[in-house]
Amino acid sequence: xxxxxxxxxxxxxxxxxxxxxxxxxxxxxxxxxxxxxxxxxxxxxxxxxxxxxxxxxxxxxxxxxxxxxxxxxxxxxxxxxxxxxxxxxxxxxxxxxxxxxxxxxxxxxxxxxxxxxxxxxxxxxxxxxxxxxxxxxxxxxxxxxxxxxxxxxxxxxxxxxxxxxxxxxxxxxxxxxxxxxxxxxxxxxxxxxxxxxxxxxxxxxxxxxxxxxxxxxxxxxxxxxxxxxxxxxxxxxxxxxxxxxxxxxxxxxxxxxxxxxxxxxxxxxxxxxxxxxxxxxxxxxxxxxxxxxxxxxxxxxxxxxxxxxxxxxxxxxxxxxxxxxxxxxxxxxxxxxxxxxxxxxxxxxxxxxxxxxxxxxxxxxxxxxxxxxxxxxxxxxxxxxxxxxxxxxxxxxxxxxxxxxxxxxxxxxxxxxxxxxxxxxxxxxxxxxxxxxxxxxxxxxxxxxxxxxxxxxxxx
Length: 460
Hints:
Blueprint: H1 2-21, H2 26-29, H3 33-50, H4 54-73, H5 103-117, H6 122-137, H7 143-164, H8 169-172, H9 231-240, H10 248-260, E1 267-271, E2 274-278, H11 283-297, H12 302-330, H13 335-342, H14 362-378, E3 384-386, E4 397-399, H15 402-415, H16 421-441, H17 447-452
């Protein structure tokens, strides 16, 4: 009798102990948007560390975000898979039968694995993953669920990795460099490093929704001319005199705008015999951070957070392809080169001129495309504080809307001395077309969700 009582108490203690290790609410608690936000921020930090160019960074952001989205969509009936909507993307593997999956865990696992596959500093991603997943485990997720969720996310990641292998990126690594000519209307390398033109074959990269890289080809740049009263020379003079004829307050404001939106991943500095470089986020990285700011301010849940990153990153990816097609088609000379030759040999722009042709402005195209998508997600008058550059010792700036921010990002290139006005204005038109086109092709919310009029419905 005593033995039976002891056995019963032991069994009860064992069951209670097991219960203490398992959180009955773990499915809800693992769906903390902060887990995905942190994963994307970690990827940004590694992109900065590894010094990827703006177009390449857009590729890293987009494929990793799509991986997270597809892993989540497999278990979230409110989301539509991107398979088929992106014509060359096949459906992801189905979740394993008979196994419980925590899809937010799968989404983070997929995003991290694809992100790691596209950068150089893999140990940084491994260390972060170990730390983050330890915190997820501490929520009280049953080990078999955690293991199955990570495994499924990584299976989706493998599917995305196989898919991106066909986007022409590897092939373009072997294509010829940009050829410099004697034509003074065409781009030439600029001080201080006189680097080769970055990604001269990026227009050959496979887009997500564009029918072709040239689909939204912008208006051509102003006709080159040395005539003093020509339209070309007036545009040159606008860049050259951006800080003359304005009062001290306006000059300081223009400098602040230019520096805030610089987003040059590699800036060289020479002080006497000392040479060093500073590293920052790319234009796309800045807009990825704005996406995070918007999602957090709107108190977006895990699903809306993942959806936001996927749509914004796809917009910037297609925007870079569209922009680079024009850059290396028109191959227009930069203001710095022209002004040094024909106006003022000693003039230097406020910002370091990026190493690729002038027309159109990449920041103008990408900023507008991302702003169009964010406006669709969060509304026309979504005011926010942008602290993206605080870690680079620049103060927070405030915006009344995403579109207003994109306009400031665009004009910053004139203040910075690196773009003429047509490149900026035509670039914004180009970016708006890319963003709206993506929204017309990609529908992330299921028809069931739309019919119910849920809070997370995207209205287009």
